[in-house]
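tool=predict chain=A
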Amino acid sequence: MQNRGTDEYIKAIIFLKDQVDIEALDAKLYASKATPQERAFIVITTLQEKANSTQKNLLAYFEQKKSERAVFSFQNFWVINAIAIQAKKSVFEELIKSSDISAMDLDVETYLDAPKALRSGDEPEGKESVEPGLRIINAHLLWQMGITGNGVIVMGEDTGVRHTHVAIAARWRGNFAPANQAWFDPAGGTTTPSDCDGHGTHTVGTMVGRSAAGDTVGVAPDAQWIAAKTICSGNSVSNHIAAFQWAMNPDGNAGTITDMPAAINNSWYEPSTVNECNGEFRNLFNAVEAAGIAIVFSAGNSGPNASTITMPKNINTDEVNVLAVGAIDGAQWLNGSSNPIASFSSRGPSTCGGTGSLLIKPEVSAPGVNVRSSYGSGDNSYSNLDGTSMAAPHVAGAVALLKSAFPSLTGHQIKMALYETARDLGAAGEDNNYGRGLIDVYAAYNLLASGPGYPSNPVPENGATNVPLTASPTVSWLNPEGTTKATLYFSTDMNAVATMNGSAVVKTGSLFNNYQSPAPLTFGTTYYWRVNVSDGTDSTIGGVWSFAAIPPPAPVAPTNVNAAWTGANNEVTVNWTTPTTNVHGYNITVDSSVVFMNGNTRLGKVNGTANQFITSGIPTGIHVFSVVAYDSNYASAPTSTPGTGIGIFANQYKRSVNKPIVSLQNTLDTVFVPAMEAEVVKVIVQLDTIIHTWDGDLDIYLRAPDGTEVELTTDNGSSGDNYIGTIFDDDAPTSITTGTAPFTGTFKPEQPLSNLIGKQTAGSWVLRVYDDASGDNGTLYGWTLTLITSGVIPVEMSAFNVSANGKDVNLSWSTATETNNLGFDVERSAGNGSFEKIGFVKGNGTTTESKTYTYNDANLAAGKYTYRLKQIDLNGEATYSNEVEVSVDLPTEYGMSQNYPNPFNPSTIINFALPVESKVTIKVFDAIGQEVATIVNSSLPAGNHTANFEASKYNSGLYVYSINAEGVDGKKFSKTMKMMLLK
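tool=predict ok
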C-alpha cells in the first residue's frame, strides 16, 4: 500500500483476530456423530454468532468513514470472520492500530486454470452414448445399481454456466427452487445463469450432463446443479469468499440442508497469496468442509516440474483437504499404459510442508485429456478440452454419486473413500504425479457399503415412464442373499427419499420384497423409492429409484387452426377443429377451448365444443394463434393440450415528415418496402397529420409499386380543416364522402383498397396529395401504411452491426421475428475477394420474440473486411443480409503489453504493436540483468504481433523483458517490463 496515492481507493480484506476454532468444532461434531442437518446448523450458526458479536465496532467505523468518503464500500462475512473493504490509504493506516485485527491482505485478482487444448466434439451419431472417462472411473457400475445422483446437488464455482444447454438445462436447481438459491453472481448481481467463457458449462456438464437423447457426459446425471460466477466476473478473493458462504446456506435457513451442495468444484488459482498454508484460505476451506461439503480443486496446468501445484491448493489440513486433482490421459490408460499422466498436470510436493501423505500433492487423479462436455456457442454444442479442470469435476461428480448412496456421510468422509480406493499409477505407492492414483467410484462405494449387498431388479424399472394407473399399484424388487429385514421409502418428494426422512418410510420390518400402495397413482406424477436392507449385523443403503405415472388424459391438440384478419379494427377470426378423443384414444367431449396469441397472451375462452373465436384490436406484427382444449370431467383431472397455430404477418411503416402542400401541385412521400416473398391481402392507410385550411381542395391517393393507384379521398370536407388520425379501411362502416372535417376516425375510401390485393409488397409505395385549387396551403406531417400479407418473412432482421476492436471484429445482429430459422452462416470477404464461410450461429426456429446474436472474428491482420449473413431455413432455403464493411486498422503507435499469463509456467505470451515495418528485438533478462533469451530478432511488418516465451529450462523467479524497435521511418521505440516464472 505504500505506493498508493492518498485519494486512491484500495481493495483489501480485513481479518479479525477472534476466529472460530473450526478444526476443533469439526472434530467435536465427528465425535458426537452429528447428523448432516445438525452439523450444518451448528457450524453455520456458530460462525454467524462469532461474526455478529465481534464485527459491530468495525462496521460502525466503516459506516462513518463511508459518509466521509474515505470508504467506498465494504462487505462483511461470517464463513470466516472478515470484512472486504474498498477504502483510502488513511483508513488502513488507522486500522493497523486496532487490536481486533489479525491481518489485512489486498483483495487481489484470481485466475482460471485455463484448458490446455480445445477440440470440437459434436453430439455423436450414436445417441445414448457414455463418455469414456465416466467408465474409466466406473461411474456406470453405480448407475446399474440405480445410483445416479438423485436428490443431490453439486456446485460449480467458475466462469458461470450456460443453463439452457441440453445436457444440463433440466437439472438446474433453479427449475425447482427460487433462482437466488441456484445462482450466485457476486460481481454482476444477475439473477439468471450465464457463462462468460464456456469453461464453467463444460465442468458442470462433466458433473451432471445428460441430454434428453441419453448422450451422457456427466458422472452423476440425475444430480441437480447450482453455480457461482466468480471468474471473469470481478475475479477477486472476496468474491470467492462470498460464493463459499452462499453455498453453505443458499436458502438463508441454517436448519435446512436440501439446498446445500454435496461438492463444490473449483478451477481457479490465486498466485499472490502471502500466507497460503495458514491464512484465510485454510480457515475458509475448513469452515465449508466442516459444514459437510466436499471441496474439490483442479491441481493446475503448470506441470511437469515439481511443486507446480497452483495456490491455494497446497493447503494440507489433512489428507484430502484441500483435494487437488491431477489429470491423466484416459485414452492411454484404456490402451494399457500404467503411466498416463498428462504432461501439463501440476506436480507436488506441497509447498506447505508436512510429512508422509500430507506432503504429497495432488491427492488423486482423474481423466483430463480430450474430455468431451457441454461447450460452445449453442445449446447443443460440445467440445473436447484438456486440463486438470476437466479432471476435477469427475471427482466432484463421484462425490455426488456416493452422497446419493450414503446421505449421512460428509463430503470429507466421501473424499477419504475415493482417496483410499484410488488405483495406483506410475511408480508404486502414493506419489507427486498421481497422488493416490486414479479414482474408482465403484471401489469407494464397496468400501463404504456394509451389509448383505444391494437390492436389485426394481419393478417398475428405474426411470420408467407411462406407468399405468392401477387400483392397487405395486412395487417390487429382489433382495440380496442373506437379507433379514428391509425398509422401504416411497414418496413423490425426492428429497424425503434421498435424505431418508422418516416421513417417506411406508414399510419396515421382517423380510419382504414388494409393496402395494393403498391409494392409486395419480396422472403424470413421478414417484421416488429406495430399499435399505439388513442381514441382522450390517445394513446396505439402496439407491434412489424412480418412475413416472401415465400423463394426464388430455385431449389431443385441436387441428386445422387458422386465423384471418377481418374488420376495420384489426379484427381476427380464429377457427379450428375441436378434438373428440384424448391422448389415450378415448372418446371425450371438450368442455371449453382457450385461444392464445404468441404462446402466452390469453385472448379468451369459448365453452363446449365451439370452434371459432373473434377478437379485435390486435396490434400489427407477426402473431401465432394457438388453441388449448380442456376436458375437466375426465378422471376429475383438468387437462389441456399443447397449442398449435398459424402465423399472420402485418407490417406497419410509419413516416414522420414535414412537406408543404402547395396549390395546384403534387406533394409526394414514399415508403420503401424491402424485397419479400409476400402478396398483399389487405391494406390500411392512416393520415396521421395533414394540416390544411380547406380540405375540399385535397385529392389524396395511394400508389402501389406496380403503379396501381387507389383514390382515398377527393374534395371532401368542404371548407373544413385537417386530417388528424384518419384511417382508410375497406371494412369501415362509414364512407369518407359522408364525413365532415376535421376528419378523425376510420372511413371507407372512395376507391377500394382491395384493388391492391395480390400485389407484391416489395418496392415504393407513394402517398400523393394534390391541392386542386389556389388560395390555401398546408403541410403533410405524417402517415402510416399497414400491409397485411399472406406470407410470413422467414426471418425479419432488425439490426446488423459490425465493429473492429483491435485485431478482432465483433458482429451483432437482431431479429424481430423468426420462422423456421435454422441459423446463420457468417461470411467474410477480405479486400475485394470472394466471400467465405467463417462460422455458424444457431437460430431459434420459430419465435415472435426479438432475438440477439453475436459472433467474434479474432486475430485478423490489418485491412478492410466485408461481412454478410446467410440466413438458412429448416428446408435449406437461404437469404443473404446486406453487406457491412469494416476496417481493422494498423496500430498508430508502438506498444508492448504485460505478458499473459503472469505469473506463468512454463510459457507466456507477449503482445506488441508496430505502426510501420520495423526491425525488432525482444530479449529476456534474469533478476541480476544477465540475458537469458532472445525471443524476437527480425524485421516485421506493421500490425499487432505476438511472441511466445518458453521457460521450461529456466528457474523460478523474476525476469525482465525488453523490446527495441526501429521503424523504416527512422522512429525508435523501447520498453521494459517485469514478469514472474513460478514453478
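The CA atoms of residues 333 and 340 lie 6 Å apart. Residues 123-128, 635-647 have pLDDT under 50 and may be disordered.
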